[in-house]
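Tokens for chain A. Residues wanted.
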């Protein structure tokens, strides 16, 4: 529980930091979907070709969003995530409820048993420094990974993201790592780099008034010695 208390203290302190922000005076909503050649998340291979819809609503820094993933193959794991977050200036605080429907297990959405739920609850704290975005994620409940001794790991993940432009494309360089032992990320026995990736996005003009964003991403997972190259289309 000590790690969770530390995270809570950091969140509370961050809320008291002086920031400059422009209030969002009206409700904004978004809807979209990605079609990806494979589903790679934090360096983990979670399925083949997938459709990933999203829906969100925000007001004055507070946002609620839904995201999902459904594989083309029936055996692929289905996923449905809900995220509640608050943004003030460059600081973001949020909580996500992940739900995974495995093809070989019973996956009742409304089942929240301490040791049998298919949900994972994760808290995150992030700050945008302009040149780089830094995010810390920690599982605070649900079907979390375990340490080598079998106890809950409070699995955590550190993500550094650096956006830039080059050659007429929008790029993102990412490095992600887990700080301590957990079975959630390639059975890490300690600090482990799980993802080093580079993503490029381009707007493909279809008509005079309509363009389609396409992206390609190269990733390497040093922790399990894996690599991937994915392609996607955003609608």
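Reply:
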């Amino acid at each position: 529980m000590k790690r969770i208390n530390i995270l809570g203290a950091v969140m509370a302190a961050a809320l008291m930091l002086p920031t400059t922000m422009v209030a969002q005076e009206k409700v904004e909503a978004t809807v979209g979907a990605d079609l990806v050649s494979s589903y790679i998340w934090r360096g983990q291979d979670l399925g083949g070709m997938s459709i990933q819809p999203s829906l969100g609503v925000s007001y004055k820094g507070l946002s609620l969003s839904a995201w999902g993933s459904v594989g083309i193959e029936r055996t692929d794991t289905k996923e449905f995530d809900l995220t509640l977050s608050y943004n003030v200036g460059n600081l973001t605080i949020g909580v996500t409820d992940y739900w995974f429907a495995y093809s070989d297990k019973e996956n009742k959405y409304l089942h929240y048993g301490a040791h049998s739920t298919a949900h994972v609850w994760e808290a995150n704290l992030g700050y945008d420094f302009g040149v780089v975005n830094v995010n810390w994620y920690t599982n605070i409940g649900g079907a979390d990974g375990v340490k080598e001794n079998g106890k809950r790991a409070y699995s955590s993940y550190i993500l550094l993201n650096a956006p830039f432009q080059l050659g007429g494309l929008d790029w993102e360089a990412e490095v992600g790592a887990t700080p301590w032992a957990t079975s959630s990320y390639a059975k890490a026995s300690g600090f482990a780099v799980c993802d080093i990736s580079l993503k490029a996005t381009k707007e493909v003009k279809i008509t005079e008034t309509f363009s389609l964003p396409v992206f390609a991403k190269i990733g390497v997972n040093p922790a399990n010695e894996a690599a991937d190259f994915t392609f996607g289309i955003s609608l």
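The two ends are 41 Å apart (CA to CA). The chain has one helix and 14 strands.
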